[in-house]
């Protein structure tokens, strides 16, 4: 086997083996990040270098948490993965290296992430940003809640009205994976939300992960209600119901399910919109949960809470979602799941 063939084979091995590693992943310009197996790590702090630069061999790893480092075969031994033979293989150019890393990221469904809010804000154009103030409500939702779920407000002078824009970073544990701008004032013909570029929403778009995770932990809950949009989640959270928005009708994957299971959830309840998109969301989530239950010893219960389907005098569907549903419907959900925390939590946002 020629050196180039050997190197190509080694790349393919690493591609496939990294895909088997459990836990969250990340990526930088020159490395793929995984949870470090050499210490108690919950955040992807170990980088597997993909040959960026002539001095770094393919498969070299380094943990920025515990300091562990070495070549791929040492990591493969630790994780019971397949080894490679071209330990000293390097790629010929930075351009080729970047192409390889991008290919790997696409294959593993990975997205860029950061633990620094400044880096995240720079990626959206580096506007002026400030933590959300408790004194400012957002479309009927109390400022205290917006602040607690991690909201920021952006000042964008280029806008004619110089309006403030709410920004919801998509944060999972310590890392940021994208985010959504949420305009304060709804304008006809303009989308209410504008997500950051990239494919982060597919596997990592769950809002608000950290707030809901702490809610579940604090009250020793075993269930979560999954909705489509950020405002839907806020409506339920304001009533003390643990909720997660998956940011799209088709945006639910096994990766998102894994994050939700790590919260301690045993029961998933969907509360979809009453339109075709809502049906798609419910069906997508049910399929992922069903597949999980077929192959995993950890079984997840699934149930659905449908919103009423009604039509106006012209036969047009009256659009309902958790955000605009009557309070009686929200309380019906509370009664069905025998949820008694509304008196403990709701006063926080009174």
Q: Into how many domains do the coordinates divide? A: 3
Give unreliable regions as ranges.
Answer: 340-350
CATH structural class of the largest domain: Alpha Beta
Number of helices: 12
CATH fold field value of the largest domain: Dna Topoisomerase Vi A Subunit, Chain: A, domain 2
Question: Which percent bin holds the helix content?
Answer: 25-40%
Outline of the structure:
It is built from twelve helices and 14 strands. With 350 residues, it is α+β, with helices and mostly antiparallel strands. It folds into three domains: 3-108, DNA Primase, Chain A, CATH 3.90.580; 112-203, no CATH class; 206-350, 3-Layer(aba) Sandwich (Dna Topoisomerase Vi A Subunit, Chain: A, domain 2).
Write a structural description:
- With 350 residues, the chain is of the alpha+beta class.
- It folds into three domains: 3-108, DNA Primase, Chain A (Alpha-Beta Complex), CATH 3.90.580; 112-203, no CATH class; 206-350, Dna Topoisomerase Vi A Subunit, Chain: A, domain 2, CATH 3.40.1360.10.
- 34% of the residues lie in helices and 17% in strands.
- The chain is built from twelve helices and 14 strands.
- It has helices spanning 3-18, 72-79, 94-108, 117-123, 143-148, 200-204, 209-218, 230-238, 254-262, 276-295, 327-336, 342-345; strands at 26-27, 31-34, 46-49, 61-63, 69-70, 128-131, 152-155, 164-172, 175-183, 193-195, 223-227, 243-245, 267-270, 301-304.
- A five-stranded antiparallel sheet has the order 1-2-3-4-5, with helices on one face. Strands 6-7-8-9-10 form a five-stranded antiparallel sheet.
- The model is unreliable at 340-350 (pLDDT under 50).
């Amino acid at each position: 086997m020629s050196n180039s063939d050997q190197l190509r084979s080694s790349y393919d091995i690493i591609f496939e083996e990294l895909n088997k590693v459990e836990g969250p992943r990340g990526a930088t310009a020159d490395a793929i990040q995984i949870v470090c197996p050499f210490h108690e790590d919950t955040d992807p702090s170990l980088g597997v270098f993909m040959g960026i630069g002539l001095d770094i061999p393919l498969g070299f790893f380094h943990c920025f948490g515990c300091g562990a480092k070495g070549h791929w075969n040492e990591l493969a031994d630790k994780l019971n993965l397949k080894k490679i033979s071209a330990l000293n293989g390097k790629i010929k150019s930075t351009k080729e290296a970047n192409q390889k890393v991008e290919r790997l990221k696409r294959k593993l469904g990975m997205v860029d992430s950061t633990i620094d809010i400044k880096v995240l804000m720079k990626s959206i154009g580096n506007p002026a940003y400030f933590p959300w103030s408790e004194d400012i409500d957002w479309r009927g939702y109390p400022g205290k809640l917006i602040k607690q779920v991690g909201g920021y407000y952006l000042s964008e002078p280029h806008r004619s009205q110089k309006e403030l824009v709410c920004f919801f970073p998509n944060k999972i544990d310590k890392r940021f994976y994208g985010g959504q701008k949420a305009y304060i004032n709804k304008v006809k013909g303009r989308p209410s939300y504008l997500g950051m570029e990239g494919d982060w929403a597919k596997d990592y778009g769950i809002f608000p992960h950290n707030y809901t995770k702490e809610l579940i932990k604090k009250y020793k809950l075993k269930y979560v209600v999954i909705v489509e949009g950020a405002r839907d989640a806020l409506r339920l959270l304001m009533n003390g119901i643990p909720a997660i928005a998956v940011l799209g009708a088709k945006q639910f994957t096994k990766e998102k399910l894994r994050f939700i299971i790590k919260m301690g959830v045993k029961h998933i309840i969907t509360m979809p919109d009453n339109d075709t998109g809502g049906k798609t969301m419910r069906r997508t989530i049910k399929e992922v949960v069903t597949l999980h239950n077929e192959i995993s010893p950890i079984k997840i219960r699934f149930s659905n809470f449908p919103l009423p389907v009604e039509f106006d005098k012209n036969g047009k569907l009256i659009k309902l979602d958790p955000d605009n549903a009557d309070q009686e419907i929200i309380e019906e959900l509370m009664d069905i799941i025998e949820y008694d925390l509304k008196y403990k939590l709701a006063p926080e946002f009174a």
